[in-house]
Amino acid sequence: MTSRAKPRPRPAYRCTECGWEAAKWMGRCGECQAWGSVVEVGAPTGRTAAGPVTSPAVPIGDVPVEDSRARTSGIPELDRVLGGGMVPGAAVLLAGEPGVGKSTLLLEVAAQTARSGLRTLYVSGEESASQVRLRADRTGGVHPELYLAAETDLAAVLGHIEQVRPQLLVIDSVQTIGAADVDGAPGGVTQVKEVAAALVRVAKTQNIATVMVGHVTKDGTIAGPRVLEHLVDVVLQFEGERSSRLRMLRAVKNRFGPVDEVGCFDLSSEGIVAVTDATGLFVARHHQPVAGTCISVVLEGRRPILVEVQALVSPSSAERPRRTTSGLDGSRAAMLVAVLHQRCRISLASHDVFASTVGGVRIQDTSADLATAVAVASAWKNREVPTDVAAIGEIGLAGELRRVRDMPQRIAEAARLGFRGVIVPMEAGGAPTSVRDVDGMKVVEVPDLEAALRVFDLARTDTTPLFRTREPHLVRPALGLV
């Protein structure tokens, strides 16, 4: 009697992006639809036996936390986004478009950390050591406690870490580092995953704060496997227009703080400087009041920022007039034009409408709806809006005004800057139009868009406006609007 041989286990294939498994190889993942992410992981294993532990489990109250308290990075805006500063043993991934200033920011962070007495290691895989030194000379980042190495091999990087023993490690960038014992070229899915995992292990075991630069694809997402964002503790996005010196840092993921904070930086040839008060950056300087402008207070993260919206309305002979925006959502601006036409009887069907923000800021907060509509109505009627009156509120399709979050914080910011009035949506169940004083400033609550336009004398009906445009020499100079 012959015994039948046991069948050999079939190989398994797994997606490196989402973990989906299949019995055979496929060019495209059946779960997340990613191309080229399905790789062979070997035969499925059986039960895993218990093994030795690295450290015994202890009650959570007995775990020491003194070594993991955040310490300042020397840059207040970065500390704000991180939730207090750099945490020892934390792995941070910084991503952004090419040329946005990632290397300049991290070199400044490394220099500030070295000045505080903590040893720092900066590993550059994209530039030579002399090129980084030239940039450090230009930005004033040369310090004895700042060590520099130009390496692209993971084993050499780990050797530098063992030799220098830094408290802060900067890797620029993770896509340029390769492991010799892993298949594929540096920057590939397998290579990036292995390199990032090795650096995170070193950061956790040796309690080293690690910052890695990550490249982005053409659609703005972080290059490499999605698991890269899961491995690290913090994911930061560095944004900015090439035509503007303003840069913004946002947290996409943060295990040690909030993810709705934003940091502002000024990038110049001398380096990068944190902008602790962004007031005035997004407001134009007018020598005299100009029609088609209105100021709003939007939230960037948790920070209220003053933003000016400008609009231009011109007659058009085209069959389809243009609706062009810069810094604003184009579809939302078109919706506001339709609401002005339908609810406020402001005919713009034969006019081109252009709307833009000042300073290159991109507004995603719906609280700027009212300021945008007021600016368009002001440009259509060619009547100036007072530069010391702000408009805050979201507009619905019925023309009603909706309140937005953190309204007291926005009003307090307008009062701090010396505004004499602010237009806000009416509280639920309130009077049709009410006026109250807050810190010497008039807060006008209106129910809908047409009532807000009457306050500025921009409505079709003849009314007495609450706010009139002051003379140019009386316009509040605190924001440089004269």
UniProtKB/TrEMBL annotation:
Name of the protein: DNA repair protein RadA
Record comment regarding domains: The middle region has homology to RecA with ATPase motifs including the RadA KNRFG motif, while the C-terminus is homologous to Lon protease.
Domain of life: Bacteria
Residue numbers spanned by region Lon-protease-like: 352-482
TM stretches of this protein: none
Coiled coil regions, renumbered to chain: none
Stored InterPro entries: AAA+_ATPase (IPR003593), DNA_repair_RadA (IPR004504), P-loop_NTPase (IPR027417), RecA_ATP-bd (IPR020588), Ribosomal_Su5_D2-typ_SF (IPR020568), Ribsml_uS5_D2-typ_fold_subgr (IPR014721), Rubredoxin_2 (IPR041166)
PANTHER family per record: DNA REPAIR PROTEIN RADA, DNA REPAIR PROTEIN RADA-LIKE PROTEIN
SMART domains: AAA
GO cellular component: cytosol
Function: DNA-dependent ATPase involved in processing of recombination intermediates, plays a role in repairing DNA breaks. Stimulates the branch migration of RecA-mediated strand transfer reactions, allowing the 3' invading strand to extend heteroduplex DNA faster. Binds ssDNA in the presence of ADP but not other nucleotides, has ATPase activity that is stimulated by ssDNA and various branched DNA structures, but inhibited by SSB. Does not have RecA's homology-searching function.
Gene: radA
NCBIfam families named in the record: sms (TIGR00416)
Keyword DNA-binding: yes
Listed SUPFAM superfamilies: P-loop containing nucleoside triphosphate hydrolases (SSF52540), Ribosomal protein S5 domain 2-like (SSF54211)
Pfam families noted in UniProt: AAA_25, ChlI, Zn_ribbon_LapB
GO molecular function, one term: ATP-dependent DNA damage sensor activity
PROSITE patterns: RECA_2
GO BP term, pick one: recombinational repair
Binding positions (ATP): G96, E97, P98, G99, V100, G101, K102, S103
Protein family per UniProt: Belongs to the RecA family. RadA subfamily.
